[in-house]
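Incident review: delayed structure delivery

Summary: a single-chain prediction request sat in the queue longer than the usual turnaround. Root cause was a stuck worker, restarted by the on-call engineer. No data loss occurred. The affected request and its eventual output are reproduced below so the record is complete for anyone auditing the incident later.

Affected input:
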Amino acid sequence: MQKKTRAFLKWAGGKYALVEEITKRLQAANEEAETLVEPFVGAGSVFLNSHFKHYILNDINADLINLYKELQRTPDEFISDARKLFVDLNNHPDAYYAYRQQFNESVDVYERAILFLYMNRHGYNGLCRYNLKGIFNVPFGKYKRPYFPENELYFFSEKAQQATFTCLSYEQVFKRVPDKAVVYCDPPYVPLSKTASFTAYAKGGFNLDDQAELANLAEKAAFEQQTPVLISNHDTVLTRKIYSQAQLDVIQVKRTISPKGSGRNRVDELMALYHD
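Output delivered after worker restart:
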């Protein structure tokens, strides 16, 4: 069995535990596919653990995509500069909040990319959250010794040479899907309860109309353009209704966003595959 590769970012709802289930379905849906399109790439676990000639990797979070582009462009320089922030002196609330303020005030793409990685590893639970003004507001994480993911950064930068990174809406991504492609969508999930929503990963969030529109676009891509689309989400009455035109499978997955071990229960994950 091939060794799995971890993403260099901590990420709410990351797909590391499910990559075998996801890649298996994508390959079976279109064995001739040359390109994997991900409208919601997140930390990139599916990208890192799949084998396509080319990738179109998109996210609405501009800071995330800028980080990927900088790492793709100048990996040695980027990793060297990022490493300098991972020292004991910076693993302190005063340092973290000063860097967070610097990030929120900065318009320099490279500086923001370095600080984004620092905050991801030093901030609370690896969350990525912005307020309505677009201000990053995740508190300090209180980790004993934050891990600097050097090997993971180098692996990502090498594989990123096969990728095109974009920061567009999911609707725009569907308009640009090439021939011989498969699409994997990992949208912000429908919340299981009113308090369990982590959709503020970019200003504006992702509402129920977006969930339904994404399903419509998946149907069109699969049934009109013969491009298979796989969507993952929570298994709820609502998602089953939204994905009624898809082939549905349920997988149990352990949730890791809760800071308490007792809150990390197994949750049913829905895999909705659209293909003609």
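Verification: Confidence is low (pLDDT under 50) at residues 195-203.
Action items: add queue-age alerting; document worker restart procedure.
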